[in-house]
Structure formats: structure tokens, C-alpha cells
Design brief:
signal, peptide transmembrane transporter activity, globular, D-Maltodextrin-Binding Protein, domain 2, four-stranded mixed beta sheet, 2 domains, Peptide/Ni-bd, seven-stranded mixed beta sheet
Length: 534
């Protein structure tokens, strides 16, 4: 599998990835008691929606390589077999239904009929088989998550069967993910899909068709008049490329953008909500800000010190000051969006300075002449909000006698020191926790790909393995809850805040993906149901 830089992974995590299960969105924030989201007029066809974005896509093949700039566009050009909506539920897409066998080793998808590619060619099960065979054989983004797939068969044009080596309960979540768009076999077959010309002139089955890409300026899509599903209201969607987020915010205020589309500075949140020309959607993701320790080769090998730092952290202070109030305190070992698998009994404790000091002293530490018990360095990305979180955390831990040195680093340096080198004391990340509770495994299993902590607990390994081998939620849940219990006890990480993104847009925009009645139909950047009430 291609080795991505961790910061790129994080950008994708925060901007585009979602999971399945639970309730994921909060409806658009109202400016006052009288303003509501009730639409009194019938949706109107026509018009051009202008959405901000900060850079040019490098490719229009969403399955080949990670490209955060492509994902908002890909959601509108392509379809998946199944997809995850803004309320974090899996719903049909190109597959109108699916069936999982009793033993969990076969998943049969029944496809929508009369679907056509944008060039008029018919879509069939052969495209699905080709797509996933290619992802696996040509090292696509999700190749490492499809290792359970043994064979894909196509009994007829409208049926696809995934035959698995072993039961893989997380597979459906990955198939609904952004790197599993179905690609046209008739265009990509017998070519190098990394260099195929269609990577710059994409052909999909989605509600909008690609028109043009003017580098550094915009990407334009037009409505697919022959779309097999609900036809879009808009004539066009233009993604306006504005590299600087602050400039994009100003363009929104000036009316040059209909939807901001980019991650805004957290400091703007209050301004958006007080502007009567705007609505503000909020999206809850299965993602969170968290602190993690090097428990293998640092001072934090001592669990008492990890426990003390956890108790010394003031999460409310961090959310208020560093995250500008945009977040919800995290105390569970797993994102609460997967409520069916969540352990709400074994949770990380609230701040307790006195107990933290007792733990440090019981570990054999005494204060030095500066009144500190020990020093530790936190390595963080040199970007907000990580720098602000680290600064507030430094102040928090001073209260328990821990001297925190902050090492702010560029992405490449952080990757080299922390991601690859594992040469650090503790650090911060914002990490995706989906698309299924099985995502605990790569973080907390002994051999997990994202286990940066050096964490190893055989009981956790066994529980996560068992949870991933079963089919029904009620059977899986106890194992994930057991794993969470040990994670809380061992403190390899300390969760800080659940990730919430804010999405400001003009008040005349109706059918926004975060709005009432739409959240259960689309992903975060899909504009099928958007219309302009002006």
C-alpha cells in the first residue's frame, strides 16, 4: 500500500472521511429564534453554485491516490456501490441493495439498472469487478483495507458477489468510503490507471459531469441530464480555487462564494453565526483530537506518568481557547458516533490536579529547584490548532509540576521523527476513527499500522480480532467494549475533543448537505439536492 505522509492522512480524515452508525450531524445553526430551515417554496431548477476550495486536484482518479482537493469534486462526479451519509449511515448508491451471507463470507450487491456513464456507455457489474480488482492489484488507496477479499464474481450484469477469505465486518464501511468510487472499465482496462488520460478528463456515473479545469482558477461541473437517480437542481457547480482560507472567508462575506467549502479558521466561527446573510451547518465526524504517548522508548513508559498527564489536562480549557468552542469533550476510548459499540462505563477521568501529583510522587519523582517533577517534549505540527492545543496543555501540566517543551515542526520533519522514527515523548493528532469500530485495530493492535505509541496488550489484540470476525452488531459490541476498557486503563492516548466541522454558506442556499431532510441522503460535499432560493 502506498505510504502516505501522516499529515495528508489527517487532512483527508478531517475533510472528507465519515463512518457508519450513530447520528452524525447537527442541523444548521439558527441565528435567532425566528429563523428556521423550513422551505416554503418548491425547489427551483437552474443556477450556478460557487464553492470554495484551496488547491487544484492533481488527478481525477479518486481511487488511485489520496488527493484532498479532489474529494469534494469526486462526490459529485462518481458513485460508489454504497455510501455514507452525513448522519453516518450506509445507504445504497449504485447498489440498490445488498445481502450478507450467514457466515459473513459473501456479500452480494444488486445493482441499479439502466445506469449510464457520462459518455453514454452502459454501466454494469463488470465495472465494479474491474474497479476493485484494480484497486487491489495496482495498489490503490484502499488496497490494504481489502485484504479479506478473495474473489469478486459477476453472475450477471446487475449482480456482484464479494467472496471473502475470512469474515470482515468492517468491509462494508470501507466500500462506502471515498476511495471506492466505481471507475469505467471501458476507459481504464488494459491501461496504466495512474497515467490514463481520463485522470484529467473524468467520466463517472454521478449527478454532475466534468466540464473543465482551469488550473489555479476553477473546476466546473454541469448537471448530468441523464442521471439514473434524483436529478440535480443546479445547472452547474463551480469550485473556485482560493489558496488562502482567510481570503476564501472574505469571498464568502463578499458574496463571491455560495458555500465556503474550505476549512475556516476557528476564530471565524462566531462571526459566521452572527452574520444574518449566512447559515452555518455543523458536521460531526468520527474523528477526534487526541494526545498520544511513546510508551515504548520514553519517560512515558511509566503508566503512572501517563495517568498523571491525563489527569492534568484541562480539556474544557483546550476546547474553549484552542478550538474556539467548536468541539465536544472526549472521554471515551472510541468515537461516540458508533454508539452500539461504545463503552460508556470505562472512560478517561476528569481533571484532578491533586491526584495527578500523587501519581507522579508515587512514581519516585521529587520537585527540582524550578518546582517541576520532570520535563517532557511534545512534538506537534506547526499549524493551528495543534500549536494552540500544545500551548494550553503546557500551562495545564505546569499545575502538576510537569515542564512541557513544545517542539513545533513542519510536516516532513514530524513524519521523520514521530511517524517513522518513533523518537518522541508525546504528541498530538486529529485522527479518523472510522468507518467502523474495527478502526480501533490499526491504532491499538500490537502490529497496527497507526500504532505510533508502541502499545501492546494481548487482551486488546484478542478482543479486536474477535470483534472484527463477527457479523452482527450485538455480537461484536462486547469485544469492542472490552478493548476500550483496557485502552482506558493503559492510557496509550488521551482523547481531547470530538471533531466538529463548521460549514458556512449563503442564506439563499437550500438543500445544503448538513440541512434537515438532506443529511440522510448525501455526503458532506454532494450537491444533488442544493438549490438557490433567489
Amino acid at each position: 500500500m502506498k505510504r502516505l505522509s501522516l499529515l495528508l492522512v489527517i487532512c483527508l480524515i478531517l475533510g472528507i472521511f465519515t463512518g457508519c452508525g450513530g447520528t452524525g450531524t447537527e442541523n444548521d445553526v439558527k441565528k435567532d429564534e425566528d429563523q428556521t430551515e423550513t422551505v416554503t417554496d418548491a425547489p427551483k431548477e437552474g443556477g450556478t453554485l460557487v464553492v470554495g476550495m484551496t488547491g487544484d486536484p492533481s488527478t481525477y482518479n479518486p481511487d488511485y491516490q489520496a488527493d484532498g482537493y479532489l474529494q469534494p469534486i469526486a462526490e459529485n462526479i462518481f458513485n460508489r456501490l454504497i455510501k455514507v451519509t452525513n448522519n453516518q449511515e450506509i445507504v445504497p448508491d449504485l447498489a440498490k441493495s445488498y445481502k450478507v451471507s450467514e457466515d459473513g463470507k459473501e456479500i452480494t450487491f444488486y445493482l441499479n439498472e439502466d445506469v449510464k456513464w457520462h459518455d453514454g456507455e452502459p454501466f454494469s457489474s463488470a465495472d465494479v469487478k474491474f474497479t476493485f480488482d484494480t484497486i487491489i492489484s495496482q495498489d490503490g488507496q484502499l488496497a490494504g483495507s481489502l485484504t479479506s477479499v478473495n474473489e469478486i464474481t459477476t453472475p450477471d450484469d446487475n449482480t456482484v458477489v464479494f467472496k471473502l477469505k475470512d469474515n470482515d465486518s468492517s468491509l462494508l464501511g470501507y466500500l462506502a468510503w471515498d476511495a471506492c468510487y466505481i471507475m469505467p472499465k471501458h476507459i481504464y482496462e488494459n491501461t496504466d490507471w495512474s497515467t490514463n488520460p481520463a485522470n484529467q478528463n473524468p467520466v463517472g456515473t454521478g449527478p454532475f459531469k466534468f466540464v473543465s479545469h482551469q488550473k489555479g482558477v476553477s473546476v466546473t461541473l454541469e448537471r448530468n441530464e441523464d442521471y439514473w437517480g434524483d436529478r440535480a437542481y443546479l445547472d452547474k457547480v463551480v469550485f473556485s480555487i482560493i489558496p488562502d482560507a482567510n481570503t476564501a472567508v472574505q469571498a464568502l462575506y463578499n458574496g463571491e462564494l455560495d458555500i465556503l467549502g474550505v476549512e475556516p479558521p476557528l476564530s471565524e466561527a462566531q462571526n459566521f453565526e452572527s452574520d444574518t446573510n449566512l447559515k452555518v451547518g455543523r458536521q460531526y465526524w468520527p474523528s477526534r483530537y487526541y494526545m498520544f504517548f511513546n510508551i515504548k522508548d520514553s519517560i512515558f513508559k511509566d503508566i503512572k506518568l501517563r495517568q498523571a498527564v491525563s489527569l492534568g489536562m484541562d480539556k474544557d480549557d483546550i476546547i474553549k481557547k484552542a478550538l474556539k468552542g467548536i468541539g465536544e469533550k472526549s472521554n471515551t476510548a472510541m468515537t461516540p458516533l458508533y454508539e452500539w459499540a461504545l463503552n460508556t462505563t470505562d472512560v478517561f477521568p476528569e481533571r484532578d490536579v491533586e491526584k495527578a501529583i500523587q501519581l507522579i510522587e508515587s512514581a519516585g519523582y521529587t520537585k527540582n529547584s524550578d518546582g517541576m517533577y520532570f520535563s517532557a517534549t511534545i512534538d506537534v505540527f506547526n499549524v493551528e490548532p495543534f500549536t494552540d492545543i500544545a500551548t494550553i496543555l503546557k500551562d495545564n501540566l505546569k499545575d502538576i509540576g510537569v515542564d512541557v517543551k513544545i517542539n513545533m515542526m513542519e510536516e516532513a520533519a514530524w513524519d521523520e521523527k514521530v511517524w517513522y522514527g518513533r523518537n518522541y515523548d508525546f504528541s498530538l493528532l486529529a485522527g479518523y476513527q472510522g468507518p467502523d469500530p474495527g478502526a480501533l485495530a490499526p491504532r491499538f493492535s500490537t502490529d497496527g499500522l497507526i500504532n505510533l505509541m508502541g502499545y501492546s496488550n494481548s487482551k486488546v489484540d484478542e478482543a479486536l480480532k474477535k470483534g472484527g470476525s463477527l457479523v452482527k452488531q450485538e455480537e461484536r459490541a462486547p469485544y469492542y467494549q472490552e478493548a476500550q476498557k483496557y485502552i482506558v486503563e493503559d492510557v496509550p492516548i488521551v482523547p481531547i475533543s470530538e471533531y466538529i466541522s463548521i460549514a458556512p454558506y449563503q442564506s439563499y442556499v437550500e438543500g445544503h448537505p448538513t440541512s434537515e431532510g438532506i443529511i440522510d441522503k448525501t455526503g458532506f460535499h454532494e450537491y444533488t439536492y442544493v438549490w438557490l432560493n433567489k
